[in-house]
Design brief:
The structure holds two protein chains of two kinds. By secondary structure, chain A is of the alpha+beta class. Chain A folds into three domains: about 1-80; about 105-195, Butyryl-CoA Dehydrogenase, subunit A, domain 2, CATH 2.40.110.10; about 200-360, Butyryl-CoA Dehydrogenase, subunit A, domain 3, CATH 1.20.140.10. Chain A is about 50% helix and about 15% strand. Chain A has a four-stranded mixed β-sheet, covered by helices on one side. In chain A, strands 2-3-7-6 form a four-stranded antiparallel β-sheet, with no helix packed on it. In chain A, strands 9-10 form a two-stranded antiparallel sheet. In chain A, β2 and β3 (about 125-135) form a beta hairpin. Chain A starts with a helix and ends with a helix. By secondary structure, chain B is of the alpha+beta class. Chain B has three domains: about 15-125, Butyryl-Coa Dehydrogenase, subunit A, domain 1, CATH 1.10.540.10; about 125-240, Butyryl-CoA Dehydrogenase, subunit A, domain 2 (Beta Barrel); about 250-380, Up-down Bundle (Butyryl-CoA Dehydrogenase, subunit A, domain 3), CATH 1.20.140. Chain B has helices at about 15-30, 45-50, 70-85, 90-105, 110-120, 240-250, 260-270, 275-305, 310-335, 345-360, 370-380; strands at about 125-130, 145-150, 150-160, 170-175, 190-195, 200-210, 215-225, 230. The chains are: A alpha+beta, B alpha+beta. At the A-B interface, α6, α7, α8, α10 and α11 of A face α7, α8, α9 and α11 of B.
Chain lengths: ~350, ~375
């Protein structure tokens, strides 16, 4: 599968943009809790956040595979924006015929066990339940949620976070992860709509997991780049530490894990939108499992190669590793997804394992 | 970013490769009684049957007995055979590396003499690289060839030569005897020969492995006369040639599918509805396997485009051996048994066999340390 020219051009331009604009200064400031408005405006002007939507809904009918590839670049540059969340919110809201925002958006629930519900209330609705650790909720223009309705799952779109009781939180990369509680919050009729084809709480969770897997693969590329570059510059015992076999062997492992993470994330991307939910789930589960494993091993090596400097706030490695340690746990940690892979394989039966693997990949 | 990234672009198998899969599965079903676990069985009849189907030398030119199929069709045949535990030993080395190296460096006569026979499953090759004092350090070979009238006289020895006792030929790696002075270029004089193992002066002795099985051999060469027409490539070009041969050796999916049946047995032991921890441990292995497979397919794609993905092959082999060595470790944690090689229960003998075989995975075809050195060089560190 050759990479298409338009994909290549998109990735090149987004790489330039993030390299220029998502600087350590910008990220550091965002980590203090101030939303990176200027960066958001620049990204929004590219049209990327809503590009997957049909033109009728303000999008560009872009391929999801291209947008996930952009998320890898965003992960590489630690972009402190709810980019994946806005893409997913647009997908859920537009498919439900709900109004979108040009601003940053987020989605929920993002945790497997969280449940929201909507019930009829006159012409409108009432929303109850809790959605924990919703990314950037306190900063967004719109929150798009999936709730259980009287006849199945429904999409809900709130201005900001609506009338939620918000408990601020953050991950260890200081990205906002806010808990939203609703106890019978009243919503107008046009804030709630039936889910579109292929959209469900499960599908949202899957796509979120894939988004994190892809972002992790990008952050690993960055951590590896930093480690390899640093090893060639840092001189000890009269030579660059990259000349020591022990360091070389570690960097080779880091390179292998990074390559595996990118390949695994690509497996998940490839499965998207093919209309086969079971295959999509299996491959995304494989992706999040493998990428999470790689993140754990690679962070350890990237820090080991850097020595003490990598452990400082001033040096950039921590921008990537703190995100890796956060993202590997979000939308389901790798052991959770690994259990799904294992359960699916076992339910399919031992004698069907090879057929299963070769059919889906 | 300044650092080179190893690329594994995703590959979709073309329709002809998918069609091939169905054919191979049918063939495997017909030969089910010959399939086994991790023994590397040697079966010339099976190799001939595969040759008849056109499944050896698949990508080679038709004029040399090949079938001009794509790298993807070949990939599918090999992965199906490996996953089933097919007895490939009699032809696999020739198909994977000896044939391709002859096609790349051989004379017209050599291509016509050897390749059709390999492709027919009639001719078995083994690898004459390692020596008692030259393992990872291949350039340290002590086997020497001297030019004599009509050919070369070769003296020396080879060690760890799998299947030498039942192979027909070896591609022998050695050096031209110098004038006794220290040669500054360690690769100077390296030369390869197509060595008929029935020549006078060759003695082959078994070296039993720790399972008590006879795969390895030591080969002693005493004044062995090899005719001129069995020099492979050029005198002194051996290092370049052997590097190419190793690249063929390392790019194959056999580096992570040897224990597939063990993984399948573990899934069987887990039952249809395992607890979460068991499912997660198996799922982690399956995710590793699926990722390795996609990377390996990507390498097939690069080979298809005529690239030489040496770094990528080293990455896949390194990750693949780690995965295969994890299998018996995870197995003993999930389903502990006392291992017994000849046990009646499939799983018990498999855990014995895989535990005992595990060390070789990260030694054969380039040790873990050598592979990581290659990767480090690819990163620009050496």
């Amino acid at each position: 599968m050759a990479i298409r020219d338009e994909t290549r051009m998109l990735l090149e331009s987004m790489t330039r943009l993030f390299e220029d604009k998502s600087t350590k200064q910008v990220i550091d400031r965002a980590e203090t809790g101030v939303f990176a408005d200027e960066l958001w405006q620049t990204v929004a002007e590219t049209g990327v956040p809503l590009a997957a939507l049909p033109e009728s809904a303000g999008g560009a009918d872009a391929e999801w595979s291209d947008l996930f590839a952009v998320l890898r670049v965003a992960g590489r540059y630690s972009v402190p924006l709810p980019l994946a969340e806005t893409m997913l919110a647009g997908w859920v809201a537009a498919n439900a015929g709900l109004e979108l925002s040009d601003g940053p958006m987020t989605v929920g629930p993002v945790r497997g066990a969280d449940r929201l519900s909507v019930t009829r209330d006159g012409n409108g609705w009432k929303l109850s339940g809790k959605a924990g650790r919703v990314p950037y909720a306190s900063h967004v223009a719109k929150t798009v949620l999936i709730a259980d309705g009287p006849d199945g799952e429904m999409a809900v779109a709130l201005e900001g976070t609506g009338e939620a009781v918000v408990t601020a939180g953050k991950n260890i990369a200081n990205e906002a992860r806010d808990t939203l509680a609703f106890s019978g919050v009243r919503l107008s009729a046009d804030a709630v709509g039936p889910l579109g084809k292929g959209v469900s709480r499960g599908a949202l969770y899957r796509r979120g997991a894939l988004a994190r897997a892809v972002m992790i693969s990008g952050a690993l590329e960055r951590a590896m780049d930093l480690a390899v570059t640093y090893a060639q510059e840092r001189v000890q015992f009269g030579r660059p530490i990259s000349k020591f076999q022990a360091v070389q062997q570690n960097l080779a492992v880091l390179a292998g894990q990074t390559a595996a993470a990118v390949a695994a994330a690509n497996l998940g991307i490839e499965a998207l939108g093919k209309g086969d939910a079971e295959r999509e789930t299996f491959l995304i589960a494989i992706a999040k499992t493998r990428v999470g494993e790689a993140a754990t091993l690679a962070c350890e090596i990237a820090h080991q190669v850097h020595g003490a400097i990598g452990f400082t706030k001033e040096y950039a490695l921590q921008l990537s590793t703190r995100r890796l340690w956060s993202w590997r746990e979000e939308f389901g940690a790798d052991p959770e997804w690994a259990a799904r892979v294992g359960s699916a394989a076992c339910a399919n039966g031992a004698d069907g394992l090879w057929e299963m693997l070769t059919a889906v990949t | 970013m300044a650092t080179p990234m190893f690329r594994f672009d995703p590959v979709d198998l073309p329709p002809e490769a998918l069609a091939m899969r169905a054919e191979v599965r049918e063939f495997i079903k017909e030969h089910q009684h010959l399939m086994g676990f991790s023994r590397g069985e040697f079966n010339r009849d099976f190799s001939r049957a595969m040759g008849k189907r056109g499944w050896i030398g698949m990508t080679w030119p038709k004029q040399y007995g090949g079938h001009e199929r794509s790298a993807f069709e070949r990939y599918v045949v090999i992965e199906e055979m490996l996953a089933a535990g097919a007895p490939l030993s009699a032809h696999y080395t020739g198909d994977r590396q000896s044939g391709p190296n002859i096609l790349r460096f051989g004379t017209e006569e050599q291509k016509q003499f050897f390749c059709p026979k390999i492709a027919a499953g009639e001719l078995t090759f083994c690898i004459g690289m390692s020596e008692p004092n030259s393992g990872s350090d291949l350039a340290g070979t002590r086997t020497r060839a001297v030019k004599v009238d009509g050919g070369y006289k070769i003296n020396g020895s080879k060690l760890w030569t799998s299947n030498a006792h039942r192979a027909d030929y070896a591609i022998l790696f050695c050096k031209m005897a110098g004038d006794g002075k220290e040669e500054p270029d360690r690769h100077a004089g390296a030369t390869q020969f197509l060595l008929d193992l029935k020549l006078p002066g060759i003695e082959i002795r078994p070296v039993l492995n720790l399972l008590g099985e006879h795969h390895f051999n030591e080969i002693f060469l005493t004044d062995v006369l090899v005719p001129d027409n069995r020099l492979l490539g050029k005198e002194g070009n051996g290092w370049n040639q052997v590097t190419s041969e190793l690249a063929f050796e390392r790019s194959a999916p056999d580096r992570f599918l040897v224990l597939f049946q063990m993984l399948r047995e573990m899934v069987r032991m887990a039952g249809l509805d395992p607890d979460r921890a068991t499912a997660a441990a198996l799922g982690k292995l399956i995710a590793q396997l699926a990722t390795l497979r996609s990377m390996s397919l990507s390498i097939a794609g690069m080979l298809h485009e005529g690239l030489q993905p040496n770094n990528e092959s080293a990455v896949v082999k390194d990750l693949g051996t780690r995965y295969e060595q994890d299998i018996p470790v995870v197995a003993r944690q999930l389903f502990p048994v006392e291992p017994e090689l000849e046990a009646v229960e499939t799983y018990v003998s498999m855990i014995a066999r895989s535990t005992m075989n595990a060390p070789r995975f990260s030694i054969q075809g380039g040790t873990r340390e050598i592979l990581r050195g290659i990767i480090a060089r690819g990163l620009g560190l050496r």
